[in-house]
Design goal:
Chain lengths: 110, 855
C-alpha cells in the first residue's frame, strides 16, 4: 500500500471527523480549523478527486438545496481502504517519532 | 425573504471554464453557499470580492498546466516529425524539394502578379481616372480622340473635375548642351496633367508648370544623360532645331505606368503649331479625365456617348470611358496582359498541386509504417482530433521547412527571372507580402496534409496491432491511383503544349518571310539626309562592301499605310479593295530579295508615268484582275497609274496577321530635286567586314548631316524583337512545365522505390522460383504503365483544345500534328521506366538470400 501524502492524510482525517457531513464547504472549513490552511476550492476538488480515484473515500450525491442555487451537495465518506491507509500512516508516523518527541520539541539542536 | 442574491455572473462563467466538467456542479454549489454566508456576515461588497477572488486565483495555475501539456505534446510531435523526416530520407527529400519548388513558383508568380496589378495605381486618384476612348460604328475601339475634346468636355460636364490631352510627338530631334539626340517618348500635355496624375517631382514646382509655353519637364534619367550632375533647372532644350524650351521640373523615372514619357511639353505650345487641331473629324489625341467623386461612371459614359456628334454632323463614332486601372491588364479590347496573369497563375498552381499530390501519395503509401505509431497513440488515449492536429502539424512543419528553402532559392532565382520578364521584382519583406508568402506555404501544407491526416487518424488500433503486414498501403491506393493519373495527365498536357508552343515560335522565326532579312541595315532619314538622299546614295554606291541601296517609306516588317481603292480596270467586283501602300525607291526588290513573278521591276525606265505600281499576289487575287500587267489603278484619286509588276506575297506585317493587298509605288520622276516620302535608307551589306563598312557608312552620312546623330539598326534584329513577347512567354512557360514534369517524376520515383522496397520478399521468392529480371520489371512497371497510358489519353483532347485556342492568335500557324501527342506519351512512359528500372533492378539483382533471411 502506497504511503499517503500529507495533503491526503489531512483530507482523510477531516472527512473522518466530519462523519456524515463531509462536503466541499465543510471540508474546507474543517481543514482550516485543524491546520490553519485555507485551500481554494479549485485545489480542494483536485485533491478530493485524487483520493476518490485511489479508493480511500466514496462519494454520494445529496439533495439540491436552495441556498446552493439549486445545486446538489456531494458527500464524502471514508472507505475501508482509507481507514487502512490512515492506520498505516499512523504506524509509520509513530515509529518514526518513537522516543524523539521530547528531544525535538525541547529544541535540542546540538 | 425576497429573491436569493446571486454571485457575479462573469466570475461564475470563468469558474465554469476552469473547472473540469465532473465537479463543476458541486464546486459552484459550494461557492454559492459560502458566498451567501459571507454575504450574511460581512456584506455584499465583501462577498462579491471574495467570489471574484475565487474565480481569479486558479487562472495562472490553469494556464500553466495547459501550456505545460501542450508544450510537452508539441515537443513530442516535433521530435516524431524530425525522426520521420530522417528515417524516410528519400520521400522526405522528394516532398520537401517538390513543395519548395511549388512554393517558389507561387511566390514568383505572386510577385509578378502584384507588380502587374500595381500598374497605374500609384496615382492618388487612380480610381477616378478614366481614358476616353472612341468606338466606331463597326465596333473598332481606338484611343485617339479629336483635339478639342479635352477642354470642351471638361467645360460641358460638371461630372468632370479635370481633363487633359496627350499628344505623343513621335520621333523627335532634341538638342541640349551642344549634343543632339533622337527621342521617342516626348509628349505634349495640358497643364492639368500633374493635378490629375501623381508623378513624383524631384525638382521644380508641379503647380501650373505647363502653363508656361516655354517649359519642359524631364525625367531623372534623361536629366542625368543630358546634363550630368549639373542642376538641370533652367537649362535649355532645343526641339526641331528651332524651338527653345527651358527645363522647369524633373520627375522621378516613371515605372509601372501606362503613361510613359521622358519629356513633357506644354500643350499650349503644340496648339500654336498645329492648325488642324479644331478638326472634329481628326482623331489624333489621347484624352484623360478625372471624374468627380460622386459621379457614376456608367451613367456618365452613356451621357457622353454621342458627344462628338454635336460638333460633327453624322458622326457614328461613340465615346467610351475606360478606367485607368484597367488599361494595363485589359488593354483596349480586354485582350491585354490579363491572359498572361491567368496563364502563369494556372501553371504555378499546377506545380504546387503536383507537389501536394506527391506528398499525399508518398504519405499514404507509407501509412503502414505510421499506422503503428497512430495505433499506439490511440491506445494510450489520444483522441482523433488530437491525432489530426499532430499529423497536420507535421505536414505544416515540413512545408515551413520547404518554405525556408524556397525563400533562399528565390534569392538566387530572382535576378535571372527579372532579366527574363524585364521587371525589377524583389522579395520585399513587408507585412503584406510576408502574409501572402506564408499563406501560400500554409495552403500547401494544409492541401497536402489534410487527406493523410484524416486517413491515418481513422485507423482502428485493434486492426493495426493485429495485422503484421502493412495495412495502410492497400487502403491508400484507393485515392492514390486517381491522383497519380491526374498528375500524369497534367504532365502530358504540359509536354504537348510546350512542344507545340516551341514549334510555333520556331515556325514564326524561320518561316519564309518572302524577303531576305539578313545583312540588311536600315538608317532612318532625317531632315538633312532626306533632302540629300540621292547624293548620299550615289556616294554610298562607291563602297565595295555595299551590295545594294534602296529607300522606302516603311520597312517590310510593318507596312500599315492603309487606303481603299475604288477604280481599277476590268472592275469585276462591286465596292472597294482595302490595300496597303508603300513608296519605294529603285532596287527595293533586289535589296530585299523579293521575287518578281510577272512583269518588270521598277528599275526600268517608265517615261511619261507619274507613278508606277508593283502589287502583290493578294492584290491581284482581291481585285480579280486577269492579267494585271499594264492595267491601271486609281490611287487616292490622284494617280491613275499602271501596274508594271507582280511580286510573290511576302510578310510585310507581323506573322500574327494575314498577308493583305499591297501596292509598292514608285515615282520615276524622283531625282535630286524631288525626293518622295522615304523614311529609311536600306543597305544590303557584305557581312565579311561589317565594322569597317559601318564606319565608312557613318562617315558618309555624317558628312551630309553633321548635326544629327547617326542611327542604324539591322533588320533581322528588329524582326527578332517583334516576337520577343511571344518568345518570352514560351520560355517562361517551358521552364514552369519542365519543373512540373520533374516534380511529378520525383513523385513517381519515390512511389516506385517504396513499392520495390515493400516487395523485396516477393521479388526474392520469384527469383528463387526462376523468374527473370525482365519479367519482374514488367510485373512492377505494369501497374504504373496503365496509369500513364490512361493519363495520356485523357490529356490529348485537353491539350488539343488549349493549343487551338492559343494558336488562334496567329494568322500563320503550325498544323497540330500527332507527333507532339505521341512524343508526350513516349516521354512520360520513358521517364517512368527510367525512374522505376533503377529501383527495381536494385531490388531484383540483390541476392534472394539476403531478402529472405530475415524471416
Amino acid at each position: 500500500m502506497p504511503e499517503l501524502s500529507k495533503a491526503e492524510e489531512t483530507f482523510l482525517i477531516a472527512i473522518y471527523r466530519l462523519k456524515d457531513n463531509a462536503f466541499g464547504v465543510s471540508i474546507c472549513d474543517k481543514i482550516f480549523e485543524l491546520t490553519g490552511k485555507r485551500y481554494t476550492y479549485g485545489t480542494l476538488y483536485k485533491i478530493l478527486d485524487q483520493i476518490v480515484r485511489r479508493g480511500y473515500v466514496t462519494k454520494k450525491e445529496g439533495e439540491p438545496t436552495k441556498e446552493r442555487g439549486g445545486r446538489r451537495k456531494i458527500f464524502y465518506n471514508l472507505a475501508s481502504d482509507g481507514i487502512n491507509a490512515l492506520q498505516d500512516t499512523y504506524t509509520v508516523h509513530s515509529s518514526l517519532w518513537q522516543g524523539l518527541n521530547g528531544e525535538i520539541l525541547d529544541g535540542d539542536r546540538s | 425573504m425576497g429573491k436569493m442574491p446571486t454571485p457575479p455572473k462573469i466570475a461564475k462563467w470563468i469558474l465554469g471554464l476552469l473547472v473540469r466538467s465532473g465537479n463543476r456542479q458541486y464546486l459552484l454549489g459550494d461557492l454559492e453557499q459560502v458566498y451567501l454566508s459571507v454575504l450574511k456576515e460581512r456584506g455584499k461588497l465583501h462577498a462579491y470580492l471574495w467570489y471574484w477572488y475565487q474565480a481569479v486565483i486558479p487562472i495562472p495555475d490553469f494556464i500553466m498546466t495547459q501550456l505545460y501539456w501542450s508544450f510537452a505534446m508539441f515537443k513530442n510531435y516535433f521530435k516524431v516529425a524530425i525522426r520521420a523526416i530522417r528515417k524516410n530520407k528519400l520521400s522526405s527529400i522528394i516532398n520537401i524539394l517538390g513543395l519548395s519548388a511549388g512554393i517558389s513558383c507561387c511566390i514568383l508568380l505572386f510577385l509578378w502578379v502584384q507588380d502587374e496589378i500595381s500598374f497605374d495605381r500609384f496615382h492618388t486618384n487612380s480610381d477616378r481616372l478614366y481614358r476616353v476612348i472612341a468606338e466606331s460604328s463597326k465596333g473598332f475601339t481606338f484611343t485617339a480622340t479629336p483635339g478639342l475634346l479635352g477642354p470642351t468636355i471638361e467645360k460641358d460636364f460638371a461630372e468632370i473635375e479635370l481633363a487633359t490631352r496627350l499628344k505623343p510627338s513621335g520621333r523627335i530631334l532634341l538638342n541640349a548642351e551642344g549634343q543632339s539626340y533622337y527621342e521617342n517618348s516626348v509628349v505634349f500635355a495640358d497643364q492639368s496633367l500633374f493635378k490629375m496624375f501623381t508623378f513624383q517631382f524631384l525638382k521644380g514646382n508641379p503647380e501650373n508648370i505647363l502653363s508656361d509655353p516655354g517649359a519642359v519637364v524631364i525625367t531623372e534619367s534623361k536629366s542625368k544623360q543630358y546634363f550630368g550632375d549639373d542642376d538641370p533647372l533652367g537649362k535649355v532644350i532645343q526641339i526641331n532645331d528651332d524651338q527653345i524650351f527651358r527645363v522647369a521640373g524633373v520627375l522621378e523615372d516613371i515605372k509601372n505606368s501606362t503613361l510613359q514619357f521622358d519629356f513633357i511639353l506644354p500643350f499650349l505650345y503644340y496648339e500654336k503649331i498645329d492648325q488642324r487641331i479644331g478638326d472634329w473629324g481628326r482623331y489624333d489625341f489621347e484624352t484623360y479625365v478625372l471624374l468627380n467623386e460622386k459621379t457614376d461612371p456608367v451613367l456618365f459614359e452613356s451621357r457622353i456617348a454621342e458627344y462628338i456628334g454635336k460638333f460633327k454632323e453624322g458622326t457614328t463614332t461613340q465615346l467610351r470611358l475606360q478606367p485607368m486601372t484597367k488599361i494595363h491588364l485589359h488593354g483596349l479590347d480586354g485582350m491585354g496582359r490579363i491572359i498572361y496573369v491567368y496563364l502563369f497563375s494556372v501553371i504555378a498552381f499546377i506545380v504546387l498541386l503536383i507537389a501536394c499530390i506527391n506528398f499525399v501519395n508518398l504519405t499514404t503509401a507509407k501509412a503502414g509504417k505510421k499506422a503503428k505509431e497512430i495505433g499506439l497513440r490511440k491506445v494510450i488515449g489520444a483522441k482523433r482530433s488530437e491525432l489530426i492536429k499532430q499529423l497536420m502539424g507535421e505536414t505544416v512543419l515540413l512545408t515551413l521547412f520547404a518554405f525556408l528553402i524556397s525563400i533562399v532559392s528565390l534569392l538566387a532565382i530572382l535576378p535571372p527571372f527579372n532579366a527574363l520578364v524585364e521587371k525589377e521584382l524583389e522579395l520585399a519583406m513587408n507585412g503584406k507580402a510576408l502574409l501572402g508568402f506564408l499563406s501560400i506555404a500554409l495552403f500547401a501544407g494544409i492541401a497536402s496534409g489534410i487527406y493523410p491526416a484524416f486517413f491515418l487518424s481513422a485507423y482502428q488500433p485493434v486492426n493495426i496491432m493485429k495485422k503484421t503486414s502493412d495495412t495502410g498501403t492497400n487502403q491508400g491506393s484507393l485515392l492514390r491511383k486517381p491522383l497519380m493519373l491526374f498528375q500524369y495527365m497534367i504532365s502530358a498536357v504540359l509536354i504537348i503544349v510546350t512542344l507545340v508552343v516551341y514549334d510555333q515560335l520556331n515556325f514564326i522565326q524561320q518561316r519564309a518571310l518572302g524577303f531576305d532579312k539578313d545583312a540588311i541595315v536600315y538608317i532612318p532619314l532625317n531632315k538633312s539626309t532626306f533632302k540629300q538622299y540621292f547624293t548620299i546614295k550615289e556616294e554610298l554606291a562607291q563602297q565595295p562592301d555595299i551590295l545594294g541601296i534602296t529607300a522606302t517609306e516603311a520597312l517590310p516588317t510593318y507596312m500599315a499605310n492603309w487606303t481603299s481603292i475604288y477604280n481599277w480596270d476590268e472592275k469585276v467586283i462591286e465596292g472597294k479593295v482595302k490595300t496597303n501602300t508603300c513608296s519605294v525607291d529603285r532596287n527595293f526588290l533586289k535589296v530585299f530579295g523579293i521575287e518578281l513573278i510577272e512583269g518588270t521591276d521598277i528599275a526600268d525606265d517608265h517615261s511619261g508615268e507619274s507613278r508606277v505600281f508593283i502589287v502583290n499576289e493578294e492584290f491581284v487575287r482581291q481585285t480579280k484582275l486577269d492579267s494585271p500587267i499594264n492595267k491601271r489603278v486609281n490611287l487616292w484619286g490622284r494617280y491613275n497609274s499602271k501596274i508594271v509588276g507582280v511580286v510573290k506575297d511576302f510578310h510585310f506585317r507581323p506573322l500574327t496577321q494575314k498577308i493583305e493587298p499591297l501596292i509598292l509605288h514608285y515615282n520615276p520622276g524622283t531625282s535630286h530635286d524631288k525626293p518622295t516620302s522615304f523614311s529609311y535608307i536600306c543597305i544590303k551589306l557584305n557581312m565579311s567586314n561589317v565594322q569597317n563598312t559601318m564606319a565608312s557608312i557613318e562617315n558618309t552620312i555624317k558628312n551630309f548631316a553633321p548635326e544629327y546623330p547617326f542611327e542604324y539598326s539591322f533588320l533581322d534584329q528588329r524582326i527578332e524583337n517583334m516576337y520577343k513577347a511571344e518568345k518570352r512567354t514560351g520560355t517562361i512557360f517551358s521552364y514552369f512545365s519542365i519543373l512540373a514534369i520533374i516534380i511529378s517524376c520525383m513523385g513517381l520515383f519515390g512511389l516506385v522505390s517504396f513499392t520495390a522496397e515493400q516487395r523485396t520478399k516477393e521479388i526474392a521468392v520469384r527469383k528463387v522460383l526462376g523468374a527473370s529480371i525482365s519479367k519482374i520489371m514488367v510485373l512492377i512497371t505494369k501497374e504504373f504503365f496503365l496509369i500513364i497510358v490512361v493519363a495520356n489519353i485523357i490529356a490529348w483532347p485537353i491539350a488539343y483544345y488549349a493549343l487551338n485556342l492559343w494558336l488562334q492568335n496567329f494568322a500563320y500557324r503550325v498544323a497540330l500534328q500527332y507527333d507532339a501527342f505521341i512524343i508526350s506519351g513516349v516521354l512520360t512512359a520513358m521517364i517512368s521506366v527510367v525512374a522505376t528500372s533503377c529501383q527495381i533492378l536494385k531490388a531484383s539483382q540483390s541476392n534472394p538470400v539476403d531478402a529472405l533471411r530475415a524471416e
